Amino acid sequence: MASSLFIATVVALWIADSCPTNAESLSANDPAWARALNLMPLIDPEKDAVKGKWTVQDGCLTSGNEKFERIQIPYEPPEEYDYRIVFSRSQGNDAVVQFFSCAGHAVMWMMGGDNNRVFGFAYFGGKDAGHHSAAVRTAACLTNGRNYTSILQVRRGGVKAYVDDRLVTHLNTDFSDATLHPLWDLPDHKLLGVGSWSSSIAFQKIELLEITGKGRSTRRSLGTAAQTRRPASAWPVTLLSKPLHIGDDVNKEMHNPRPDAQRFTARFSLPPTVKPALVGFIYVTIEVGGLVPHNSRQYVALIKAGAFRTKLLINGTEVAVLNKLVSGKDSIAKIHKLQVRVPGGILRADANDLEIVPGAATKNLDDFELHRVVVGDSLQ
């Protein structure tokens, strides 16, 4: 179809530290999102999975680690809408996909495609995300273990894509030449969906804000995000529930021999009724294998050089050196359950940043395997 049917314009560049420049801001914390529709309760992996091993646990939708994994959401969006997902990639180095629809045509918004190097839309005029003029290329789109918020503003005349409140790219189009590749196809092109490619993705939020017209659930009634949000006292919050290889060396004993990330980062929020000034402390529970005890006599020289000092930080403040909490011989197979008390004085009312940073001797990072990270107001 002639290219005159659409005009694609890249309005932002994504640089290596995943922070776009010259970008238009969009706040994911706008009060309007309180009336957004929470689509997560609609999803039933047994009924809606098109391909892959999808699970729902603690309100989080997680994909497996296969190619072309996708699940359709039984919801037909209105004529114009904002479509938001919050996600993190725990394993793999490839795409997170947001399927959306306009004028009866299905489209993919791909983040981290082509080995984590491409942001883009597919398929317009038969072109995939990496070869379309609206593509944005960079050395590394996403970092494993970190939470991201993607918002698509879908309108009659085109679509804008934001990641973490920054405009990555936009496309002016009437969607008439949009379609899906057969290997990415969905049963109904009028509905929404999410997907992944050779990566395990945890989708923590899937929400839609109606702009023009009314959407409809094809299965059951929906409440707003505010109505269906977990109660304020709903702790603990699970930040990680699958094995994650942290470090920079290949280790065949781990679930994923190649490192998933060089550090673990995640965000959590206190319940709305809890004020940081009134919180005495909270707990972080960490299940981990492969940590070397900090008092190991076998590695005295390396410990003096800075190795085996894996730190837990909250909002940039060091809370604990995890190696000091383990004992015995280090082993990937031996899973330590560590429980760290975090003082309320370093917490924030909005988003709190949690980091687990490996120790390092010279340029070589310590390698270990995280299995579970939970934040709560009691021991887990």
Residue runs with pLDDT of under 50 for 5 or more positions? 1-26, 229-233
CATH architecture grouping of the largest domain: Sandwich
Radius of gyration: 22 Å
Q: List the domain count as a whole number.
A: 2
Number of helices: 4
Look at the structure and give the CATH class of the largest domain: Mainly Beta
CATH T-level fold name of the largest domain: Jelly Rolls
**Percent strand:** 35-45%
Mind summarizing the main beta sheet? Answer: 9 strands, antiparallel
DSSP, total strands: 31
Helix content class = under 10%
CATH superfamily of the largest domain: Exo-inulinase, domain 1
Structural class from helices and strands?
mainly beta
Q: Give the mean pLDDT.
A: 82
Oligomeric assembly: single chain
Distance between the termini: 58 Å
The shape, in one word, is globular
Summarize the structure.
The protein has 380 residues and is mainly beta. It has helices at 45-48, 113-116, 225-228, 300-304, and strands at residues 6-9, 13-14, 20-21, 37-38, 49-51, 55-57, 60-62, 69-73, 75-76, 80-92, 96-102, 105-112, 118-122, 136-137, 147-155, 158-163, 166-173, 192-196, 199-212, 216-217, 237-240, 244-246, 264-269, 281-289, 311-314, 317-321, 335-343, 351-357, 360-361, 364-365, 368-376.
